[in-house]
Design a protein that fits this description.
Layout (H helix, E strand, L loop, with lengths): L1 H34 L56 E9 L13 E5 L2 E2 L2 E5 L5 E8 L5 H15 L7 E7 L3 E8 L2 H9 L11 H12 L5 E8 L10 H10 L4 E5 L14 H15 L12 H13 L2 E5 L10 E8 L19 E4 L3 E3 L4
Parallel strand pairs: 5-6, 5-8, 8-9
Antiparallel strand pairs: 1-10, 1-12, 2-3, 2-11, 4-10, 6-7, 11-13
Helix pairs in contact: 2-7, 4-5, 5-6
Length: about 375
């Protein structure tokens, strides 16, 4: 009896063990089946909650991770999309500034008050305007370690010019040592210009190739129409440019971009300049400015610079823009001398009086001439 009971007990235990092994195998196989399901692809969006067993599902297509929008860059100028003053290839444009003895612009002049002489021959003015227009200005900054401390002072005051710029004005910065470097291209973002100026801290070279830098900047601005100018903060000293001074004068004459040099030479000890004297540097900057239709400034103190920048901005905004088609339209590449006169209704020299009835001495500022196209 005892033996039969023991046998029955062993059979029951064996049956239980087989059942447990069967259940364990079933669970293991089910786990392996789950492990064999494809894993989620990196970057793929989750497909949502799992569908009930036996229900058909639609697997979404693989999607790429969302990319952030590119950082917005400051808007750059396309000069050809801004100004359209030229109407024909033969049209000669001349910007004229009329100021009193204190440098203040004289407004309210009309088209009939101007007379243009091209090589002494009166011309018919076809285009005339005086309304304010956006400015396009390139600041050309000499950056040399020979006297960089003085240049640093002038550079700090260059920020002042930005205070006189209006939202629609365009500004670029070019600095030069051995060669010109574009620090920032034309932009209306004055904060970008200030940030660019902040990077000029430690000059690496002592060379100052002014003529090459001026020629480079003039070439960049030759296709820009409207009110434009180059403001050159420099000593006027040229080390060894490929372009000579006479060649520079010819380039200034042929350009329609006025140059406004702001000399820092007055702050320097002229005994350290070798053969280049203060008088020579002043003379060369003066002629370059004159031939281009601009004006040279020679401040002795830092406090003069804000007024100079304000004067330049004011003059550029109140210029008279004249245009004419030359009566002698031969394309001989010859230089044509220009002369601008103010006349009254009878063609006599114009007399301007102030509110007190006193005669006002005025000055006419314009480029010296132009080179006719060749061919």
């Amino acid at each position: 009896m005892t033996t039969r009971t023991s046998m029955s007990t062993r059979r029951a235990l064996l049956a239980s063990l087989l059942s447990a092994l069967f259940l364990l195998g079933t669970v293991t196989l089910h786990g392996q089946a789950q492990d064999q399901q494809p894993s989620q692809v990196p970057g793929q969006e989750p497909s949502g909650p799992a569908a009930p067993a036996g229900e058909a599902t639609v697997v979404p297509k693989k999607t790429l991770p969302a990319t952030p929008p590119p950082e917005k860059q400051p808007e750059k100028i396309n000069p050809n999309e801004i100004y359209t003053l030229r109407t024909t290839t033969n049209l000669v444009n001349v910007d004229v500034l009329v100021t009193d003895s204190n440098g203040n612009p004289i407004p309210s002049l009309s088209k009939k008050n101007f007379r243009i002489l091209d090589d002494g021959v009166p011309q018919t003015i076809t285009n005339f305007s005086m309304a304010e227009a956006p400015l396009t200005v390139c600041m050309l900054i000499e950056f040399s370690n020979k006297w960089w401390g003085f240049l640093y002072t002038a550079l700090e005051d260059a920020y002042e010019f930005l205070n006189f710029m209006q939202p629609k004005d365009w500004v670029a910065v070019v600095y030069f040592d051995m060669k010109p470097h574009i620090l920032t291209d034309f932009t209306q973002d004055r904060f970008a210009v200030k940030a660019a100026l902040d990077t000029l801290r430690i000059p690496g070279f002592s060379e100052t190739n002014l003529y090459d830098a001026l020629a480079f900047t003039i070439d960049r601005m030759k296709d820009i129409q409207g009110r434009k100018a180059i403001i050159a903060i420099c000593t006027g000293i040229d080390t060894f440019s490929k372009i000579t001074y006479p060649q520079m004068l010819k380039i200034a004459k042929s350009s329609d971009t006025p140059i406004y040099p702001i000399s820092i030479l007055e702050w320097l000890d002229v005994r350290t300049m070798g053969s280049m004297t203060e008088v020579e540097a002043r003379s060369q900057l003066g002629y370059i400015a004159q031939y281009s239709g601009g004006e040279a400034f020679f401040p002795r103190f830092r406090g003069e610079l804000p007024a100079i920048y304000q004067q330049i901005a004011g003059q550029l905004r109140t210029q008279y823009s004249l245009g004419y088609v030359p009566s002698n339209n031969q394309h001989d590449g010859r230089y044509h001398k220009l002369k601008i006169e103010l006349v009254d209704d009878q063609g006599q020299p114009l007399r301007i009086v102030n509110q007190k009835g006193k005669l006002v001495k005025y000055r006419i500022q314009a480029r010296d001439g132009y080179y006719a196209p060749r061919g």
